[in-house]
Automatic annotation (TrEMBL):
This is Integral membrane protein. The keyword Magnesium does not apply. It comes from the Bacteria. Residues 1-17, 786-795 have a biased composition (Basic and acidic residues).
Length: 795
C-alpha cells in the first residue's frame, strides 16, 4: 500500500508503529480532553457471550452507557480517564461492549426454537451472489425468497390445522372408540354427547380453529414484541455516500440496519396468511358438502361467496409480499399503518365468517375419512419446489455476471439453504402430526392418522441420513489423511523442541478438524440435493398411490417391500425422537440459563441479518448492536479527538466491521481494526459474497486507518481475510503458533493448551499488534491520503 505522510513530512507504512504523543499544556498541566490524544480500545466479544469482568480482566467494572440488554463497561478506575492526566498509564483505556443478552436473555427465548425454519430461510435472502448492474434480477431473487418464506408460514399453520381440526376434531371426535379413550373430547363426539350442540362437524372444526389461531397470534406477538425492541432502534443519521462507493457493500448504507417498515408489512401479510389458512381449512369441507347434490340451497352461494373473499384476500397478501422490498439508501421512518392494521383485521373477519358458516346447522352432515390434508400439503410442497428451482436459476444468472471463486457452492448457497428451510418445516410439521396421531390413536388403529404425504416425507428421512453418513465418512477419511500429512509441518514449526509423537498427532489432528469448516459448502450441497430429489420422489409417490409407502409396495419384490416398511417405521421413529428432543431442549432452555446460552450461540450466528424475508424469524440483534457501536465510536471521537481501536473477536469482528461501514468517512478514517478469530472472510465472505466479498473487505481496509487480523490454523471459525493485491500482507499476520510452546519451557513449565478459537489475548503477538495500531493513529485530524493508480484515496 502507498505510504501516508505525516504533518512533519515523515513517511511511514500504513501499519508501522510510531511513538506515543505527549499531551501536556504549556504550564505542565494536563491538556483538555479534545487535545489529550486519549487512546481507547473498544472490545467486542464473540458468540456465546462473556462478562465485562472477564473482558476487562478486572472484578470492578462500571456500566458507563447502555441498559441491561446491551451496554458498554469500563474498569472502575477508568471511568473518567479522559478528564484526568495519564497517571503513568501506558496502554489504552479499555471498554467492553457486552451484547450477549440480545440473544440469550430471559426464558421466553426458548420459544425461538419454533422459529428455526424461518431463521434459516431468512439467511437465504442474504446469500445471493455478487452482481453488478443487475438490479431487477437482484430484486427478483429477494422476491422469490419472500414467497418461499410465505409458504413456510402457511405450512406451519396448516400443520396446526391438521393436528387440531383433522386429527382431533374431525377424526378422533367423530370416532366413538377414539373419543371414549379421550374423555376431554366427549362433548364433541356425536355418540358420547347424544348429539350435543358442539358435536356437529362444522362446529367441531370452528372450535378447534382456536388452536391454530392462537399459534398465529403467538407468532404475531413474538414478532411485534421483538420488533419494538430491535427494529425500533434508529441508527445514527448521516448522509449517503456516493453510489459507486455504496455498491461495494450494502452494509454501509444509512438504512441498512433499520428495516422497521418492511418487517411491519411482512408481519401483517404473514399474520393474514395464517388466519386465511385457518379460514380455508374450516370452511372448505362445509363448502364441499354444500355443493353435493341435495345440499343446502341457501348455504351453497354463501360458501362460494366466502371462498371468493378468501381468494381475494390471499391475492392481497401475495401482492403485499411482492410489492415492496427493503429500503436501504435512507432511513425510512414511515409505517404503512392502514395496511398493517387492516389486512390482519380483514383476515380475522373472514375467519369469523368461516366459523359461522361452518357451524351452521346441517343435519345430514357426518364426519368420515380425512380432511383435504394431502392436497394442501402436496400443493405447498410443489410450490416450494418450484420456488427453490427458480431461485437456483436466478442465483446462477447472478453468479455468471461476476464470478467469485471463493463463493460457497458457486453462488447456489442461498437456494440450498432455502431447500433446507422447507425441509425443516416439513419435518417439524410431520413430526408434530405423527406424534399427535399416535397419542390419540394409541395402538387401536381407530383413526386414519395424518395425510399420506407426511408419511412419505418421514420415510425419506432415513435415506437422507444415509447419504449424509456416507459423506461424513468420506470427510472423516480426508481429515485423517490431512492430519497425517500435517505432522511434518507441525514439527518444523518447533525445531528446537524434543519431538513427542503423541503431541504432534494431537496438534495436527486439531488443525485437520479445524479445516472441516471449509468443507461446509460441499456438505450443504449434498444435503440439499438429496433432500430436494427425495422430497420430489415422496411427493410423486404420495399423489400417485394415495397410500403409505408400506401399502403402496404391497405385491412388489420382497426386498422393495421390506425396504419400504423399514424406511416408514424408521422415519416415524426418527421424527418421534426428534420431536421429543426438540420439546425437551426447549423446556430445558426455558429453565436452565446455561442451556439457553447454548441456544443463544445459534442465534448469534443465524440472527445477525435483518428480517428481510420472514417477519416471524428471531429478531436481528445487529439492528441494536451496530447502532450502539456506531453511536459510541462517533460520539467518543468527536468529543475527545483521541485514538480508537475496535478489537473484535469472532462474531464481534463482524459487528465491528459493520459498525465501521456505518461511520461517516471522516470518522471511519480515525479508527483502526484489530480482528482475531474472525469469520469475516472464511464464513461471511464465502456464504454472503454480495456483502462481505473481496470488494467489500478491500473497501473497508481502504477506509479505516489500519487493520490487522490474527488467526490460527487450529481455529475452526476464524481465518485470514485474504484481501487481493497489495492489501493482503498488511492485514493478515502469519498464523499464530498454537500451542504457544510445544513442550515444557521456562516460560511454560506446564504443557501449553491448544487454544483454537479462544484466548487470543494470551499470545504476546496480540499486545504487539494492538500497540502498533495505537501507535499508528494520531490524535489530530489525519493527513491527506495518497492516491493510488485508479485515483481513489488509499489507506
Amino acid at each position: 500500500m502507498p505510504a501516508r505522510t505525516d504533518a512533519d513530512g515523515a513517511s511511514r507504512g500504513k501499519c508501522e508503529a510510531v511513538e506515543p504523543v505527549t499531551t501536556m499544556g504549556a504550564d505542565g498541566s494536563a491538556a483538555r480532553p479534545e487535545e489529550s490524544g486519549t487512546a481507547l480500545e473498544l472490545l467486542v466479544h464473540g458468540v456465546g457471550g462473556t462478562t465485562p469482568e472477564k473482558m476487562l480482566d478486572d472484578p470492578r467494572t462500571v456500566r458507563i452507557t447502555g441498559d441491561e440488554v446491551a451496554a458498554v463497561f469500563r474498569r472502575a478506575d477508568d471511568v473518567d480517564a479522559e478528564k484526568r492526566p495519564r497517571d503513568g498509564r501506558t496502554g489504552p483505556v479499555p471498554e467492553a461492549y457486552v451484547w450477549c443478552n440480545l440473544t440469550s436473555g430471559n426464558g421466553t427465548r426458548a420459544l425461538w426454537l419454533l422459529l428455526l425454519p424461518f431463521m434459516v430461510v431468512n439467511l437465504a435472502h442474504w446469500m445471493r451472489p455478487t452482481a453488478r448492474d443487475r438490479t431487477r434480477t437482484v430484486r427478483f431473487y429477494g422476491l422469490l425468497v419472500r414467497l418461499a418464506s410465505l409458504t413456510l408460514t402457511v405450512l406451519l399453520v396448516a400443520a396446526a390445522c391438521e393436528v387440531a381440526l383433522d386429527l382431533a376434531a374431525w377424526q378422533c371426535a367423530g370416532t366413538r372408540a377414539c373419543a371414549e379413550s379421550h374423555s376431554w373430547l366427549g362433548f364433541l363426539s356425536p355418540d358420547l354427547s347424544d348429539g350435543g350442540w358442539w358435536s356437529r362437524p362444522g362446529r367441531r372444526l370452528a372450535l378447534a380453529a382456536v388452536v391454530p389461531a392462537a399459534l398465529t397470534g403467538l407468532l404475531w406477538y413474538l414478532s411485534h414484541r421483538t420488533w419494538s425492541a430491535y427494529e425500533s432502534q434508529q441508527p445514527m443519521a448521516r448522509h449517503s455516500e456516493p453510489e459507486e462507493d455504496n455498491d461495494r457493500t450494502a452494509l454501509g448504507r444509512p438504512g441498512f440496519w433499520y428495516g422497521r417498515r418492511l418487517v411491519a408489512r411482512l408481519r401483517a401479510a404473514h399474520t393474514a396468511a395464517g388466519l386465511l389458512t385457518i379460514a380455508a381449512a374450516v370452511s372448505s369441507t362445509a363448502a364441499r358438502f354444500d355443493r353435493e347434490p341435495g345440499g343446502p340451497a341457501l348455504l351453497d352461494p354463501l360458501g362460494r361467496l366466502l371462498e371468493a373473499g378468501l381468494v381475494a384476500a390471499g391475492v392481497a397478501v401475495v401482492w403485499v409480499v411482492c410489492r415492496r422490498g427493503r429500503s436501504e439508501k435512507y432511513l425510512d421512518r414511515q409505517l404503512d399503518e392502514h395496511l398493517v392494521r387492516r389486512l390482519p383485521l380483514a383476515a380475522l373477519v373472514l375467519l369469523a365468517l368461516a366459523a359461522v358458516y361452518a357451524g351452521w346447522e346441517r343435519p345430514e352432515w357426518q364426519s368420515h375419512g380425512r380432511l383435504s390434508g394431502d392436497a394442501t400439503f402436496g400443493g405447498i410442497a410443489f410450490v416450494q419446489g418450484l420456488l427453490v428451482v427458480a431461485l437456483a436459476v436466478v442465483a446462477h444468472l447472478l453468479y455468471r455476471t461476476h464470478p467469485d471463486p471463493r463463493a460457497a457452492m458457486r453462488g447456489l448457497a442461498g437456494p440450498a439453504v432455502a431447500t433446507l428451510a422447507c425441509a425443516l418445516g416439513g419435518v417439524m410439521s410431520g413430526g408434530v402430526s405423527q406424534r399427535v396421531a399416535d397419542w390419540l390413536d394409541g395402538t387401536g388403529a381407530t383413526i386414519l392418522g395424518p395425510p399420506v404425504l407426511l408419511t412419505w416425507q418421514a420415510s425419506v428421512i432415513p435415506l437422507v441420513l444415509l447419504v449424509l453418513l456416507a459423506h461424513c465418512a468420506w470427510l472423516g477419511r480426508r481429515t485423517w489423511r490431512s492430519g497425517r500429512a500435517q505432522r511434518g509441518a507441525v514439527e518444523s514449526e518447533y525445531p528446537a523442541e524434543p519431538k513427542d509423537a503423541a503431541r504432534t498427532r494431537r496438534i495436527a489432528r486439531t488443525r485437520a478438524m479445524a479445516a472441516l469448516t471449509d468443507r461446509g459448502p460441499r456438505l450443504l450441497g449434498v444435503t440439499s440435493a438429496s433432500t430436494l430429489t427425495l422430497g420430489a420422489g415422496a411427493l410423486v409417490g404420495a399423489l400417485t398411490s394415495h397410500k403409505t409407502p408400506a401399502r403402496a409396495t404391497e405385491g412388489a419384490y420382497a426386498f422393495v417391500q421390506g425396504a419400504a416398511d423399514t424406511a416408514q417405521a424408521l422415519g416415524s421413529w426418527l421424527i418421534g425422537l426428534g420431536f421429543i428432543l426438540f420439546v425437551t431442549w426447549g423446556r430445558r432452555a426455558y429453565k436452565d440459563p446455561s442451556a439457553r446460552r447454548t441456544i443463544g450461540i445459534l442465534w448469534d450466528v443465524g440472527t445477525f441479518w435483518p428480517r428481510a424475508a420472514h417477519p416471524f424469524a428471531p429478531p436481528c440483534y445487529a439492528e441494536r448492536a451496530v447502532p450502539d457501536l456506531t453511536w459510541r465510536i462517533a460520539t467518543w471521537i468527536r468529543a475527545t479527538r483521541g485514538r480508537l481501536v475496535i478489537s473484535g473477536h469472532s462474531q464481534g469482528s463482524v459487528l465491528a466491521a459493520a459498525a465501521a461501514w456505518q461511520l461517516e468517512p471522516s470518522v471511519r478514517g480515525r479508527v483502526a481494526l484489530l480482528t482475531y478469530g474472525s469469520p469475516l472472510e472464511r464464513l461471511y465472505g464465502r456464504w454472503f459474497p454480495a456483502h462481505f466479498g473481496p470488494a467489500a473487505l478491500t473497501a473497508l481496509h481502504h477506509d479505516v486507518d489500519c487493520w490487522r487480523n490474527l488467526y490460527r490454523l487450529t481455529d475452526p471459525i476464524g481465518g485470514p481475510v485474504r484481501l487481493p493485491g497489495d492489501c493482503g500482507p498488511e492485514v493478515d499476520r502469519e498464523p499464530l503458533k498454537d500451542p504457544l510452546a510445544y513442550g515444557r519451557t521456562d516460560l511454560h513449565p506446564l504443557p501449553s493448551a491448544i487454544l483454537g478459537h479462544s484466548d487470543y489475548q494470551a499470545d504476546p503477538v496480540f499486545a504487539e499488534e494492538r500497540a502498533r495500531l495505537l501507535g499508528r493513529l494520531q490524535p489530530d485530524v489525519p493527513g491527506p491520503r495518497s492516491q493510488d493508480d485508479s485515483g481513489r484515496s488509499s489507506a
